[in-house]
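Quick review question:
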């Protein structure tokens, strides 16, 4: 069973006066809070230099925090924790997330950095900060709204290895228990952090759901990409043998199902779906041609609808109030100024405090009495194409406002209807459609066409729908490449000091084929010698990878042994790569592993050891561990997906398991005659 990894913050949780506040929405934007121009290993040190040290000493697991301000009125602050995990002393030396995404051959780094936004800061103070990863890869059962793996109790949990490769472990927005921050805001924050720190690649296991709907299928058919695709996450690796081309073709096939063919076919079996499609075709201002168009329109429309089945009044009804002493024209100007202020302030339907709205509207309305009257009166009123919502924040007890765009769902005025008078403005207007109604329709369409298609959609040309759906759902691993390639450049680091950055890697003469680190950027002064370059490469790779802690650089390939005193730029051109050759002292390496109580040699790569020695040979075409449940054949010892062998995920693996090939061979044996 995996050990729980918790760091106790203790008495350091008492805040010191003067601790820096950072704006949540702009944290890690270019130049804020610091200029970050190096590799991840250097940038994360620079960033942590601005943080508050919560716990730990050098050589131990340390934790820092940043106070991120969401709102000033009322003051709303969340705390981002960064934990530096010492891998050599960690109970989880290897990263199973690297293995299942296809990075199992990466060397094990000496450090990992956990970025954690806890769901409840009070629980962190009392119980400590949990930063461990539960489970063993894909196939998780996390039912959170935007879950990516298993990271219970955190709004955000991301991991980045010292070499710049990382994983988004979990993210939970409002539906996952967040009080203040939406899933979009958390993803924006994570994306800014990765971009600012120059992370190389980030993987995730997409298990996000909306109720009973799997978002990677719903958004895939609607937009051709997952929910995480808007931040640049793309197909990462095959699962169940589904390659990139098959995945893309499946999405395209589902998107392109023509409604003009689908509706007549369904009309012979049921009336519900044709009526549903006809309803949204009537609401839409343009022709919906295929299933992708329909789902995309419904998802876009959802954000503009009122949340519940409510009615709203025309705002001009407030002019008949006895306390109104202003003309209709002035009230109209003030109401529209409030709406304009909300439009500028409430991005993504964010609730805005009364004080913020009032301050923004004061730029256009000088009469504070008029402004206060309008703010007091507006609440569930229609102004133009918007409904102004007003509610008391249950946490801060402060009055807040929000806009809902209802331009596409307002009832059409009857012919000859004129502009309502103030007296007529009290008339209530009921919307044709609410968000709750749309979600019910969306779930019904999703279930009947995609998830549980009726017999009408499993025969003939429509028989390809279940196959395409299964292929789309099989793909869970997505990766964003933040760093396409490291280019060697020269840059000024202070007046009169010019540095050169080179792409360097190693060749270990006495190492195995797995001891191959990726290229790293090494920065040295332009006047540095070859000997100084070798020393810097040796230091960098020793600090970064556990298996190279005793590496000794001997020579630079392509440069003679007697040229250590020569200048680097005289021998190595800018833009070229550098390969340093050397050896690893195996005796010292084993002594350095004194904390490892196992008799066998410690793992070198993230996927080495018992898991990495698996031979995967599945009938679906998979030849590597993709994180899905597998079983080992008791005859040939090859690993195969249990699903491909006919064992459902809800069933236990048989005590005697035979892969498909061995099972067929056993059946083909001639019967023994006595």
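Suggested answer, residue by residue:
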């Amino acid at each position: 069973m995996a050990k729980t990894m918790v760091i106790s913050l203790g008495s350091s949780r008492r805040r010191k006066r003067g601790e820096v506040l950072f704006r949540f929405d702009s944290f890690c934007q270019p130049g804020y809070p610091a200029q970050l121009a190096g590799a991840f290993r250097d940038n994360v040190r620079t960033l942590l230099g601005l943080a508050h040290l919560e716990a730990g000493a050098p050589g131990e697991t340390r934790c820092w925090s940043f106070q991120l301000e969401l709102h000033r009125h009322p003051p709303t602050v969340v705390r981002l924790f960064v934990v530096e995990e010492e891998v050599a002393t960690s109970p989880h030396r290897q990263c199973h997330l690297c293995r299942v995404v296809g990075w199992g051959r990466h060397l094990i780094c000496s450090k990992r950095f956990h970025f954690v936004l806890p769901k409840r800061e009070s629980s962190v103070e009392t119980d400590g900060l949990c930063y461990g990863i539960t489970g063993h890869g894909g196939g998780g059962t996390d039912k959170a709204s935007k879950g990516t793996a298993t990271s219970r109790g955190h709004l955000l949990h991301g991991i980045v290895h010292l070499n710049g490769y990382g994983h988004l472990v979990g993210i939970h927005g409002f539906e996952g228990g967040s009080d203040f921050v939406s899933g979009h805001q958390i993803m924006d924050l994570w994306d800014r952090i990765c971009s600012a720190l120059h992370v190389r690649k980030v993987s995730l296991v997409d298990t996000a759901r909306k109720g009973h709907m799997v978002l990677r299928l719903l958004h895939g058919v609607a937009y051709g990409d997952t929910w995480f695709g808007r931040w640049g996450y793309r197909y990462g690796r095959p699962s169940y043998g589904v390659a990139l081309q098959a995945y893309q073709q499946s999405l395209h096939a589902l998107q392109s199902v023509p409604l003009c063919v689908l509706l007549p076919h369904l009309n012979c079996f049921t009336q519900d779906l044709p009526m549903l499609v006809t309803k949204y075709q009537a609401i839409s201002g343009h022709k919906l041609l295929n299933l992708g168009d329909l789902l995309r329109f419904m998802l876009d429309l959802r954000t503009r609808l009122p949340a519940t089945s409510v009615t709203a009044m025309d705002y001009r009804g407030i002019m008949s109030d006895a306390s109104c002493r202003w003309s209709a024209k002035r009230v109209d100007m003030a109401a529209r100024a409030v709406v304009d202020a909300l439009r500028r302030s409430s991005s993504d339907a964010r609730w805005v405090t009364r004080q913020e709205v009032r301050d923004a509207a004061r730029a256009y309305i000088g009469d504070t009495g008029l402004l206060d009257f309008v703010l007091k009166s507006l609440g569930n009123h229609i102004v133009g194409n918007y409904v102004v919502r007003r509610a008391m924040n249950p946490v801060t007890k402060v009055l807040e406002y929000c806009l809902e765009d209802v331009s596409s769902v307002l009832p059409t005025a009857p012919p000859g209807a004129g502009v309502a008078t103030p007296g007529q403005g009290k008339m209530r207007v009921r919307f044709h459609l609410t968000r709750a109604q749309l979600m019910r329709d969306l779930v019904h369409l999703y279930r009947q066409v995609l998830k549980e298609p009726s017999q009408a959609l499993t025969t003939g040309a429509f028989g390809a729908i279940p196959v395409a759906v299964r292929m789309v759902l099989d793909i869970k691993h997505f990766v964003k490449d933040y760093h396409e390639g490291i280019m060697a450049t020269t840059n000024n680091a202070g007046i009169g000091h010019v540095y050169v950055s080179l792409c360097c890697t190693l060749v270990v003469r006495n190492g195995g084929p797995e001891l191959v680190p990726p290229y790293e950027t090494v920065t040295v002064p332009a006047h540095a010698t070859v000997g100084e370059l070798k020393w810097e490469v040796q230091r960098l790779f020793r600090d970064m990878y556990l298996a190279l802690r005793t590496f000794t650089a001997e020579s630079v390939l392509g440069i003679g042994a007697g040229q250590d005193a020569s200048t680097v730029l005289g021998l190595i051109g800018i833009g070229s790569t550098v390969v340093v050759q050397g050896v690893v002292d195996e005796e010292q390496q084993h002594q350095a592993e004194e904390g490892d109580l196992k008799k066998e040699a410690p793992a070198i790569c993230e996927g080495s050891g018992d898991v990495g020695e698996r031979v995967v040979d599945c009938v679906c075409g998979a030849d590597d561990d993709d994180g899905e449940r597998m079983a080992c054949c008791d005859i040939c010892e090859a690993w195969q997906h249990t699903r491909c062998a006919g064992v459902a995920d809800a069933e236990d693996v048989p005590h005697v398991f035979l892969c498909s090939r061995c099972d067929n061979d056993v059946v083909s044996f001639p019967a023994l005659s006595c």
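Why it works: DSSP finds 18 helices and 27 strands in the chain. The two ends are 49 Å apart (CA to CA).
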